[in-house]
Structures are given as structure tokens and as C-alpha cells.
Amino acid sequence: MLAGGVSLILVGMMISNFQMMIIGLTFIAFISINGWIVGQSELEITRFVPHSNVYKGDLIEVSLTITNKSYRRTQLLEVFDNVPHEMKIRRGINQIRINLGPGQSTKLDYMLRCPLRGHFSVGPISVRHRNAFGLFVNESKIEDMCDITVFPQVRDVEDAMLRADVPKMYTGATTLRTPGPGMEFYSLREYLSTDPIRSINWKAFARTGEMMVNQKTRDAVTDVFVILDTREVSRIGTVLKNPLEMGASAAASLASHFLKRKDSVAMVTYGSRMDFLPPDTGDKQQYKVLSRLASVSPSGSMPLQAVTNALSPRISRGSPVFIISSLEGDGTTLPAIRNLSGNGHEVIILSPSSVDLERLVSRIPRMAYEVLKLERQNRLTAVSGYGAKVVDWMPDVELSQALVQSRG
Amino acid sequence: MDWRKIGVFLNTRRNKRIALQASFWAVLLLLILSIAITYVVPGQTQQSAYGDEWNDLGSFREELNNKGVETTALVSSPLLLSDIDHPEQTIFVISGVERDTISLPRFTGEDDLIQFSEGDGYTSSEIVAIREFVSRGGTLILMDDFGYSSNLASEFGLQFTNHRLYADYSYDNDLGSDFVWVNTTSAFNFTSSQGTQTTVNPCIRDVDGDGVVDVLDEDPSDPEIGAPFVTIQDSGLCAHRFRGTDPATNQPRWDWSQDYSILTNTPSAFEKTTSYNPAERRYVISKTTQDSWIDNNGDGNYSVGSFAAFGLVGDEQGPFPVYVRYCEAILCRGSETGRVHFISDGSVLINSLYDPEFDSIYSGMVPENDNRKWILDVVAEALILNDNGTSPGEHALVIFDESRHQQPTIFGDTYNLVYYLLIYFTNDWMAMLILFLFLFILLEAVLIRKEDPEDWRHVFRVVYYGFGDAERYKYYQRPEKIRQVLLTRVRNLNALTMEEFEAMPASELQGMIRDPVLVRFLFEERNYRPDELVGIVRRIKQWGESGGVTKVVD
Lengths: 408, 554
Fold this sequence. Notes:
The complex is a heterodimer of chains A (408) and B (554). Chain A has 408 residues and is of the alpha/beta class. Chain A has helices at residues 2-14, 18-36, 158-163, 202-208, 243-260, 282-294, 304-311, 333-342, 354-361, 366-384, 399-404; strands spanning 43-48, 53-55, 59-68, 76-81, 88-92, 95-98, 105-113, 118-122, 125-130, 137-142, 146-151, 174-179, 185-190, 212-220, 223-229, 237-238, 264-270, 274-280, 321-324, 347-352, 389-393. In chain A, the strands form 5 sheets. Chain A has a 6-stranded mixed beta sheet, with helices on both faces. Chain A has a 4-stranded antiparallel beta sheet with strand order 1-3-7-5, with no helix packed on it. Chain A has a 4-stranded antiparallel beta sheet with strand order 6-4-9-10, with no helix packed on it. Chain B has 554 residues and is an alpha/beta fold. Chain B has a 7-stranded mixed beta sheet with strand order 1-17-2-5-16-15-12, with helices on both faces. In chain B, strands 6-13-14 form a 3-stranded antiparallel beta sheet, with no helix packed on it. Chains A and B meet through helix 1, strand 16, helix 9 and helix 10 of A and helix 9, helix 10, strand 18, helix 11 and helix 12 of B. Strand 16 (237-238) of chain A pairs antiparallel with strand 18 (465-466) of chain B, so a sheet runs across the interface.
């Protein structure tokens, strides 16, 4: 239009045609007025998200309130809330086109589904102004971010654990007749400078004239160790079905199950490095476990034996150990499990079938598939030969069903 | 007045923003004004046809208007002369070229193609436009001394000396030596051989010799027929030569003189060598006297001879041509042919000299002169196109060039500059081409840079695949690998350690397998067809499922 206006004026001047010049001037005046009547960007946008921690597959309601704080109309205004690609919009839409008057406000509501675990951020908010005729555009961003953590799914495995051929001696908190942190009284002893003041037995002090403190009986619980394989090989499969996703869900479910029973749970992940979450009980430990599992990603090739060697001094005697791994590409699996079993630990291996997961995304020749399966069976058989309980977890089988099929 | 409330009011966010914006625009305006100050302040006008000072040309313009001649001013550029429809009835008056103009590129159409630098005064495009105006029959009156009109004069083969002309005796005693007389006795005797060209000017043309000028004669070819009773109004553009009516004959008395006594003010002169050239149709009309001299060295004194040895330049002695006429046709024949009147003084038509009664500092001192008579003869020669009339033609027009004068109004020069650029970009086709190219590139750049933003939309994208190593599939189809898998299976099912298994004799191994096909596969090294391998793998699978005993034998 600008080119047309200028051309008309020039041609009009050349041929002395004033009508043509006036039309050209009209064009340019139109452009100029468009440039002048542009929207106002003094906006206040607030986002409300009810939960910042959700489980994989959960829904989140997001609500944006947009208020025009200026003294002019916004003209045509587009607001777009940037949602991570990994989240799916289930209801509503994350953008709105509005023309707000001074002081007016409006709301934008939409619902997100989180099909993947991990840490995500909703935002920033993109704002796009257009003038009255939509010829000029001005974009800006409001850096309002909302962090959302998506935990892996937690399945109910209580029935499966009862029916499964796995140890059931973890009965929760028991009292041992040894001093330590606990609730019940154990004995009196002399005060040490490291003792807290509130543990002083004032009656005994009054009676004997010496500072005495109360000692408590230690509340001992069973320590359950969950070791999750996060090596590079654990990414084989689709985004929703792969050894890591299945393993993360299984680890979360097992941890939740045992923590509910007031057992103490330790979480170990290994891939490019080993991360150890010391054994503990309660909701706080569950939150820690879930947060740790939300952020794991496949990388590295750390051998299992390196993990078990590093853990051996920290694992309580007789503690059961759950190993969640496809057992692929690691020559140290057998000696590692042999050592654990030899140290008196109950070892339960939950092994997602990586061959079948690979088959979801690759066309494996039939004969190669059969040989791979045979080799995997050989590996599982060898592991079970060392006294470990082995669960061959097929992709289309639920965790609770898989646990029931454990063999030893 | 509550200063606190005012302070609070000014301290609001909105008012702060307004104050900030106002400051910004004020500073920007100051910057622009400081640059454009040259074009904004009013100038000191002189030699302007629209001025009323002693050195302006207002009296001349008013007299033309009184005679029914339309006058106008050209404030932008002489390029507009190319748009004039009737150049043969148009006079273009240049009275003093006071300033240069900006140089813009020009397409020459010659070897150098584009000319980027320009000479002083008028641009090449403007000179071409003036030249074409004269070629099409227009009349140009160029009055300048030390100004910027050298290039325009050169276009017609004439050169200014660009030095001050002095006369020892031929100056006006009352006004002083700045006012030099330039006299001619035969203004229409262009050459020494061709005789007087009285037919050139309608105000002295009398073909039948009856004593009545042809423009008033009822029959210009019959000496017996004169003119009816003639008044000064009837004389029209030749009224300046009307001397009343002879009561004896009832015929008009007429000034037939061909001499002019032109009074100049600080004049210059033309080069002697280039002024007169009949072959190129340049004729010297008026010269100074012998006692005149050109102050070549600019010392204000007459220095005879050259003192080159001392690094001095001597002055030059007269006579010098001051008034030169150029004719588009030989001897300026034909009333519709172009002509140029060069006079080396820009002040010959200023109010004080043109109108002796003009109220100025020179009032009552200016002697009688022929400046008015001369210019009115020139005007009549240019605008009277038919033989039997003294009125100007229907399209007669006198254009005063004001584009090279300082403008007296505020923003006057800015307006002239903008208008000049406008004329330049719409008249010079090279400029038009550059402008179009520039606009085209600019708009393309804007279009490329300013793409319409894409519509926003949320894309749900979680699809990725983790592939295994596809190269290993071939390895798993080799007989050696299949054989290894079988052996591992046998060892596992029989709960043997590696050492025990390796120490075991072959016959015992055969006994463990108990399948002749698998046994043969283990011990027979040969090439297997794919279908054979498929069968063997199936047997291994079945063998393992049955706990070491093959149930199905192919």
C-alpha cells in the first residue's frame, strides 16, 4: 500500500494528475493513521495453577486473568500462554484474541494433560498487539513462568505383593532393645555436652545432683533398597514405553508401597553417575523419591557391580534389594547379583523386556528376535540361578501382574 | 498554590512518561533545527522581483503587470521550463545568481554516462533545460556580474571576466564610480556588414517607411496609409516609445532612436574574445569606453601592463562588451525564434535605476537613463508576435528566477529546497530511476524483514523413538551365535559352572541334549541355509521350554 501510494504520487506528479496524487496521498495517510492508532501494552496478566506437583497422566487447570491497566483500548490483542510441547491441551485453548477497554479484564481457562514425567515450565506469556486495521504488529513477552513437576505414575501393588513370590517379612516399624532415636524410654546416663537440653531428666538431677539424660529405645525399620537402571540402553522403545519409563513407574510404586507400610526406603539410580537417596521413612521421603524419579533421564553406561560395590557398606544386613533393569549390555550383572545374594540380601529383579520394547520401534528379523529372546532367557535363568527372584516384564503387562509372575 | 500537590501530580507514572516523551521530542526538535537553521531563518533579499527595496525589481514587474503581461516566479528549479507550453511567448529573467545549489547525479547520455559533480550555479540538468527553452523559441534575459551564472553563459559560448569593471570618466559624477555608463548608438546593428536590423524589434519596425511603426500602421506595406488616432494605451508594449500625437498630421510621434545609455552598478564584463562571434550568432550590442578597465588583480587600482616577474597580474584596458545578444536564428530573424540577452550587471533593472522617482537613498540623484527603454524593447521584441498589434500574446508570460535568491520568508529556503528535490525527482529521468530503485529496494527490504507473524498454536510433540543397534541383527542370525546361545542354554538348564561345562566330554553333552538335529548342529561346521537355521532356532526354543527334552521333531 505504501509502495502504491508513493507510486501514485510520483506518477501523478509526472503527468500532472492531481486526482492520482490525492489517491496516493490517501493511501499514505491511511498507513500513517494505522501506525498512529496502535494498541496499548500496559497489561496485567496473572496465571493461576492449583497444583505444581502432579502425577504422570494427571490433568492441570490453568487460568489466566488479563487486565488492561492503560487509559486506552488495547485494540486487537493476542495473548498466548506458552505450554511445553510435552503437555497436551485437553480442554479449552491456550490463546485468546481480545480488545479490552480501559480497566477491563477477561479470563482464559484451559486444561493440560501431562503424559510425560519430568520438570516443565508453563510460560512465558506472549502478547501480540495489532492496530485497528491489522497492518502493524508488535510482540512482547511477559516472563511469568510456572514450574510443574510431573511424578511417575504410582500403581497400587499391595495385592500383587501379597500374591507374589517375593519376601513379605517387612512388617514395618519394630522396636529393638538398643539405644537410639525413638519414643520409648531405655535408660538414664550422664549428660554429655552434645546432648540437647530437653533430654535432661530434671527430676533425676534434683534427686542425684548430677546432670542425667533420658535415653530412648531405637525404632528400627526394614530398609528396602530400590536400584533403578537409567543407562543409555534404557531408552529403547517409544517415549511412553521404554525400560526407563516402566522402571520409574515401578520404582515409584514399590517405594510408595513400602513407605505406606512404614518401611524405610532407599533409592539408587545409576547411568552416567550413581545417585543415592539414603533410606528414610514417611511422606517426605516419598516426595524425595518421586522428585528424583521425575528428573531421571537415560544416559551413561555404569556397570551394576560398581553400584553394588559402592552400596555394600551402606546396605543394612538382610535388607531386600529391588533391581529394576533390562539387564542389557552389562557384563557385571551376574557377579553383582551373586555378591548381593551371597551377602544375605533378598534380591528381586524387575526386568522390562528390552527386546520386546525394541520391537515396538524396530523391524527385527524374526530369527534375530528369537535368538535375542533366547539369549535374554539365558540371562534371566542365570540370574535366577544365583537366588534372585526374576520378573520378566513384558511391555503390555501391568506392573501388578508382572510381580505375580515372579520366579525364583 | 499547593506545591506539594503539584509535586505529587507530576510524580505519577503517567506524567513521568509524558514528561520523558516531551523531553525526547524537544531534544530531537532542537537537533533538527540546529541543522536546518540555514534553511529556516529569513534571508536578506535583493534583486528580487517581489521585493520593494531599492535593489529589487518590483517596479519592473509591476509595470509589466500594468501592461497586461502575466508574471510569475520560479522558486524551485529552472527544470520546470521544460513544462512550458508556449516558450515563444515566454521570457525567463535571471537577475543575479546569488547562490549555488546542491549537486545531484545526472545521466548525461554521453561517454561518462553519469555526472556526479556539477559546476557552480545551475546544475547541468537545469542548463540543458534553459538551453532547450531557448531552442524552442523562449527569451532569456541573464543579468549577472560576479554570480554563479558562468556555466550558463558558457553554454552559449560566452565567458564572464568575473572581475570588476571600472571607468575613469564614463561614470556618473553624482552617484560615484560604482555607477558606470554603458552606451550604444546602434543597438540593432548586430554586425558591421549586415546593417541595422530594425525589423527585429516591433517597436521600431517601419517597413513601408511612412513614419508609423508597423504595429500601429493600418497597412504596414502601404506608405500612403498610416495610423488612426493613437493613444498611449493603443501603443501597448511599445508605449515607452510613444511621444504623443502630431497635431499637424494627426499621426503618432515616435521615438525611433536605436541608442541606449544604460546605467550600471558595479558591473563586470564579458571576455573580449568570446563575446562577438557572428558564426555562432553572438553579437556584442554595448561596450564600455576606452577609458574603462578590468581590475584583474582586484586591488582597486588601474595597473597597466603585466608584472609577471613580480608575481603580479596587470589590469586590462577597455572597451569591454557588457551587453551581448545571442540569437537562435541568424540576426534574430523571426519573431518566434529564441534569443538570449546577456548583460554583465545584475543591477540594471533595480528599482532605483529603473524608476528614477523611486523613493530610496538615491532618490533625486539617479540621472535619466535608458535602462527602462532597453528592457521594454526587449520585452516587446519577445512578446509581440504579430505585425498589427501592440498587445502581448494570449500566453505571454514573464518568469522571474527566484530559485537563486535568498528568500525573505521564514522556511522559504527550506520550501525551495524541498520543491527543488521534488522537481529534480520528477523531471530528471535518471533521478526518477534512482528513486524508483531506492523505493523498490527499501520496500522489498521492509517486506522481507517485516513478515507477517505466524499464528500461534500449541504443538503437542512427544514422539521420539529409542532404537537399538540394528547392525547386531545380522550377528544374531549367524550359526556361531545360535550355537553359543544353545550351549549357554544347556549349561544354565543343567546348573553347571563355566569351568564344569568346559571340562565336560562331548559324549556327555550329547547325552544332555538328546536331540540329534541340535547335536549335529553343534558339532557340524558347515554352511546352513536360512530355512535350516529357522528350524534349528525353533527346536532350541522348544527344547528349552520342555526342560531339555525336544517334544517335536521335524
